[in-house]
Amino acid sequence: MSDKQREQQSQPRQTGFAALKEHVLENKLETTQWVSRVLTIYFALGYVLPFLYGNPVNAYYKVLMANAATSAIRLHQRLPPFTLSRAYLSQMMMEDSCHYLLFSLIFLNVYQMFLIILPIVLFAVLHSTSYSLTLLDTLGQNSWWGARLLISVVEFQTRNILRLAAFCEIFIMPLSVLLVFWGKASIVTPLVYYQFLAQRYASRRNPYTRNVFYELRLMADNFANGTSTPPVLRKALHTCIGFISRLAPPTHPVQQQPQQQQQ
């Protein structure tokens, strides 16, 4: 270790609003992502509590647009410079941020329902709190202790939040089919959403959707094989389980990631 490095480590890290401004200027993309995630949460609250925003329908679709902006920035960070090639497109489609960019585009012209934006909001809460802690540390260790408490609660519930987001992703599939029959979505919506769900199932970084599918299959198997289950219902359940299992795409090896998975 050089003398300069020792000197830098020995000097206390500067904190305060000047340090926060410097951090924001040095990390423009990360800060922009944080802002877009905070806006996602704000617009979602505006949809649920209209007095916060005024027009719940506009707030709903702005949740999708804010998520699209977040996903586009994240995708830009993860991908190499653009090349018009099959390898590049394949790599892009394997990124979780590409999945949720596609998600926003799918539901921009679909009737608004809270279940649709719930996974978006859950990811926004999870990732915005993580970066909020970085910003608070820049301000100082003792700043905003109430916000730090909320962040610690969210981080403690990370696994449950990711599982809930995965459940939402799965149950939006039959909902999208129902929306077609209700005349609230086009017939293309469930077809394209199936591609989204297949990509989430095969995700390299986030195994939660795949794990929840497995848990649901075990629950369905246990119910179908129960002694009190009518034979007709048992046969129908086994048929559905086999059909869904055949639709499952091949999976990639899961990369080692921190517990908080990237969207």
What would you note in describing this structure?
Helix content is 73%, strand content 0%. The protein is mostly helical. α4 (56-78) packs across α7 and α9 (158-181) packs antiparallel against α10 (188-201). The protein is globular, with a radius of gyration of 22 Å. Residues 1-10 and 256-260 have low confidence and may be disordered.
Features:
mainly alpha, disordered N terminus, 263 residues, globular, 12 helices
Tell me about the largest β-sheet.
none
Could you say which structural class the secondary elements and strand pairing correspond to? Answer: mainly alpha
Question: What order do the SSEs take from the amino end to the carboxyl end, as H and E?
Answer: HHHHHHHHHHHH
Please bin the fraction of helical residues: over 70%
* Alpha plus pi helix count: 12
Report the C-alpha radius of gyration, rounded.
Answer: 22 Å
